[in-house]
């Protein structure tokens, strides 16, 4: 059973501070194993991939080849339930529509000195998408990771996905095709990250690697960062639901459980102004739990990390929300925009009683790859911008350099950088 | 003397690949010392700051206080040369004007299903700016790091700068005031990064830490990443100058030296289509070097890491440039826009013969904190966006949930996440 905190209690601030300081990450120290695997990929290339895939996935990529052929993909897609295929297509369309609105504009102008200034955005040349194998191999995550790359205009969108025992997940390859993935390799683990970062005979290197994975994959991404760009390292999922007493407790209980069922260390928190409603939600959680195939995981998360927080007035919730900086925030109240105006820190916000968080996981449109562990204080969800980079530019004329050059010379000299000063001064002297 | 590569040589591709693979970073392994310092800051707070500052900077912050008072600042500013003050003010105005154009727009729309979708940008609550002490304490970097935070609307812009032997750099504190820094603490090293990330009795924690520093500072930023956001870890500086034979060799030589003088492991590369011009530039480099107070550093960089590359046709330069992905790129040719159109990977580009790179270091307007070590393949310069984060939002109506909810239920079931499906299904059933 989740813990209950009462904002009127004397020790509330202490208890809330403890909640904030709670660490749910279970970080295994796999740095050395990962470093060894990455070094094998750099020196042995494909041979290391074949060997490690044989060992970890019990599958002979030397025989099958590392790439999934179009025949492999078509065969797998053929086995997918048509309802799931249609749902994936609808989701892909909606995700693409939202992300298309994220495309940034070029800036290019001439200022009053006659200096031309601007910045231009270009896609990265190649993006790598890591997709986990087994149960965490979510087709929705393939859509959410690959579509922003495709919308950004990335030429090569390269997916790696392990196929343990040779089994290909039909929904994952279908999602890949819908999302615009251009190459698929059947490898996983740190070795897949290494192949994407450094390249092998078969897999050309990429510039940016995204996607979730286990401790080995996360550590591999950390270690290759710098050689390539990476997205953030995701921690356990979280939801914060703000709900007044006018909600159906069964709906709110289901929302809390939709995060709890992801992971025993996921966290679900309810904030309400109605203690009786909190009790009703807690009861509904128990009722739902007994019906769910995900009961064990969801119960562990709710019992160990779940909270109900009762406040006298939900208008006071903003401060607690901003301190928690949740990955997902539901505002299940009549006028959610009033509270939303005061929210500074949240990955994604779900407004009103008819917007369960799960709609954002699949079909709403915005990305479901979001900052966890209070990282919403300084970062947002995965986006088209992550697959692009800015180049700034300047063009002086002989006249405009005359206007701004002297200050540059003064500052360069003050900083003890004479060649900086000289490079400007030579061009100014030329006029005299 | 720099090496000369000739694109017509049989082994050019091998030599160019070697250039690309060259590592100029000198990474000291300071992880353990840094981890110990960070742990002392967490447990001892101010006391550890006083102690470490006394040890490393020979200065008693227990006596002076950790914060620079407004009297300290005014006294230091009073000693600054008025010409430098005016140059800093002009630079600050121009940097602010450029960065003001980076402010992103809110997205908020209703799609054809009646679902409201969008994203909103907010500044981080507090940003920390690390400024090194001693010779690398550049006032221009204070402007470049703090102004984007100030333009983003960050409430607390907190600067740390060591004051070895108690000496305050007048240009640095003047730049801080011009840039909108709100708090200054006279601490440095890994301990300053720790104080910004975790907070102490005197220094409240921030959400994002930026700024250059030595190996200890870089490692400290790496270790606190996740607790706070960080900018990228800067490597040695680089310039790539593309110049035809119509340039003044003395100008181009000064441009190459303006990066070389930063660091013995900085890199300056000339690409030209005129071997005689390359020879003239190399001669001009020697002439300039003997006049520079930065000769020793600049000569080491030019001799060890400098290159001249001669191509038959500068129109073929784009491929080499994109593979090098330089931090700074000068296009000193008659029609720079033609070549610029083909450039995908560069941090900042300087167009035409009258735009020396140094103008971008000080007064042009765009940021001088730029990706190094080929990171321009996947990232751009420091910007207002780095001090803001996006929050996405969704609001379904009962009707719009009816339109998009069924696909979410199908996908949640296919992914084995029944509580996700339930949270949507309960809201749909309510209509029936």
UniProtKB/TrEMBL annotation, chains A, B:
<feature type="binding site">
    <location>
        <position position="328"/>
    </location>
    <ligand>
        <name>substrate</name>
    </ligand>
</feature>
<keyword id="KW-0368">Histidine biosynthesis</keyword>
<dbReference type="InterPro" id="IPR016161">
    <property type="entry name" value="Ald_DH/histidinol_DH"/>
</dbReference>
<feature type="binding site">
    <location>
        <position position="361"/>
    </location>
    <ligand>
        <name>Zn(2+)</name>
    </ligand>
</feature>
<feature type="binding site">
    <location>
        <position position="191"/>
    </location>
    <ligand>
        <name>NAD(+)</name>
    </ligand>
</feature>
<feature type="binding site">
    <location>
        <position position="130"/>
    </location>
    <ligand>
        <name>NAD(+)</name>
    </ligand>
</feature>
<keyword id="KW-0862">Zinc</keyword>
<dbReference type="Pfam" id="PF00815">
    <property type="entry name" value="Histidinol_dh"/>
</dbReference>
<feature type="binding site">
    <location>
        <position position="237"/>
    </location>
    <ligand>
        <name>substrate</name>
    </ligand>
</feature>
<feature type="active site" description="Proton acceptor">
    <location>
        <position position="327"/>
    </location>
</feature>
<dbReference type="InterPro" id="IPR022695">
    <property type="entry name" value="Histidinol_DH_monofunct"/>
</dbReference>
<keyword id="KW-0520">NAD</keyword>
<feature type="binding site">
    <location>
        <position position="262"/>
    </location>
    <ligand>
        <name>substrate</name>
    </ligand>
</feature>
<comment type="similarity">
    <text>Belongs to the histidinol dehydrogenase family.</text>
</comment>
<dbReference type="InterPro" id="IPR012131">
    <property type="entry name" value="Hstdl_DH"/>
</dbReference>
<feature type="binding site">
    <location>
        <position position="259"/>
    </location>
    <ligand>
        <name>substrate</name>
    </ligand>
</feature>
<dbReference type="GO" id="GO:0051287">
    <property type="term" value="F:NAD binding"/>
</dbReference>
<dbReference type="GO" id="GO:0000105">
    <property type="term" value="P:L-histidine biosynthetic process"/>
</dbReference>
<keyword id="KW-0479">Metal-binding</keyword>
<feature type="binding site">
    <location>
        <position position="420"/>
    </location>
    <ligand>
        <name>Zn(2+)</name>
    </ligand>
</feature>
<protein>
    <recommendedName>
        <fullName>Histidinol dehydrogenase</fullName>
        <ecNumber>1.1.1.23</ecNumber>
    </recommendedName>
</protein>
<keyword id="KW-0560">Oxidoreductase</keyword>
<feature type="binding site">
    <location>
        <position position="361"/>
    </location>
    <ligand>
        <name>substrate</name>
    </ligand>
</feature>
<feature type="binding site">
    <location>
        <position position="214"/>
    </location>
    <ligand>
        <name>NAD(+)</name>
    </ligand>
</feature>
<dbReference type="InterPro" id="IPR001692">
    <property type="entry name" value="Histidinol_DH_CS"/>
</dbReference>
<feature type="binding site">
    <location>
        <position position="415"/>
    </location>
    <ligand>
        <name>substrate</name>
    </ligand>
</feature>
<feature type="binding site">
    <location>
        <position position="259"/>
    </location>
    <ligand>
        <name>Zn(2+)</name>
    </ligand>
</feature>
<comment type="function">
    <text>Catalyzes the sequential NAD-dependent oxidations of L-histidinol to L-histidinaldehyde and then to L-histidine.</text>
</comment>
<feature type="binding site">
    <location>
        <position position="420"/>
    </location>
    <ligand>
        <name>substrate</name>
    </ligand>
</feature>
<dbReference type="GO" id="GO:0004399">
    <property type="term" value="F:histidinol dehydrogenase activity"/>
</dbReference>
<feature type="active site" description="Proton acceptor">
    <location>
        <position position="328"/>
    </location>
</feature>
<feature type="binding site">
    <location>
        <position position="262"/>
    </location>
    <ligand>
        <name>Zn(2+)</name>
    </ligand>
</feature>
<dbReference type="GO" id="GO:0008270">
    <property type="term" value="F:zinc ion binding"/>
</dbReference>
<dbReference type="GO" id="GO:0005829">
    <property type="term" value="C:cytosol"/>
</dbReference>
<keyword id="KW-0028">Amino-acid biosynthesis</keyword>
<comment type="pathway">
    <text>Amino-acid biosynthesis; L-histidine biosynthesis; L-histidine from 5-phospho-alpha-D-ribose 1-diphosphate: step 9/9.</text>
</comment>
């Amino acid at each position: 059973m989740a813990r209950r905190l009462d904002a009127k209690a004397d020790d509330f601030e202490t208890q809330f501070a403890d909640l904030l300081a709670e660490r749910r990450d279970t970080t295994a120290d796999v740095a050395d194993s990962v470093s060894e695997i990455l070094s094998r990929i750099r020196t042995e290339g494909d041979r290391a991939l074949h060997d490690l895939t044989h060992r970890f996935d019990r599958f002979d990529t030397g025989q099958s080849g590392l790439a999934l052929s179009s025949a492999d993909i078509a065969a797998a897609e053929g086995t997918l339930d048509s309802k799931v295929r249609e749902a994936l297509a609808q989701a892909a369309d909606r995700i693409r529509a939202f992300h298309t609105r994220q495309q940034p504009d070029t800036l290019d102008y001439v200022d009053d000195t006659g200096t031309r200034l601007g910045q231009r955005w270009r896609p990265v040349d190649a993006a790598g998408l890591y997709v986990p194998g087994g149960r965490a191999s979510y087709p929705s995550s393939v859509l959410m990771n690959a579509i922003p790359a495709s919308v950004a205009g990335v030429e090569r969108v390269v997916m790696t996905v392990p196929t343990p025992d040779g089994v290909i997940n039909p929904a994952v390859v279908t999602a890949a095709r819908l999302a615009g993935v251009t190459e698929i390799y059947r490898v996983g683990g740190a070795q897949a990250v290494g192949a994407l970062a450094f390249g092998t005979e078969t897999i050309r290197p990429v510039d940016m690697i995204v996607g979730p994975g286990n401790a080995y994959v996360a550590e591999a991404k950390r270690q290759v960062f710098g050689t390539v760009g990476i997205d953030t390292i995701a921690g356990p999922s979280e939801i914060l639901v703000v709900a007044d007493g006018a909600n159906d407790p069964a709906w709110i209980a289901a929302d809390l459980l939709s995060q709890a069922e992801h992971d025993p260390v996921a966290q679900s928190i309810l904030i309400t102004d109605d203690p009786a409603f909190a009790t009703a939600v807690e009861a509904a959680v128990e009722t739902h739990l007994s019906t769910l195939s995900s009961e064990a995981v969801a119960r562990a998360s709710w019992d160990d990390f779940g909270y109900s927080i009762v406040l006298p007035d939900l208008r006071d919730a903003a401060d607690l929300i901003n301190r928690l900086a949740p990955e997902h925030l539901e505002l299940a109240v009549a006028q959610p925009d009033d509270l939303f105006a005061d929210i500074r820190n949240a990955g994604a916000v779900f407004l009103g009683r008819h917007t369960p968080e799960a709609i954002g996981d699949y079909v709403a449109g915005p990305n479901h790859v979001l900052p966890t562990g209070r990282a919403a204080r300084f970062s947002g969800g995965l986006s088209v911008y992550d697959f692009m980079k800015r180049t700034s530019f300047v063009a002086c004329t002989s006249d405009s350099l005359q206007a701004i050059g002297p200050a540059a010379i003064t500052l360069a000299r003050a900083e003890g950088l004479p060649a900086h000063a000289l490079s400007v001064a030579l061009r100014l002297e030329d006029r005299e």
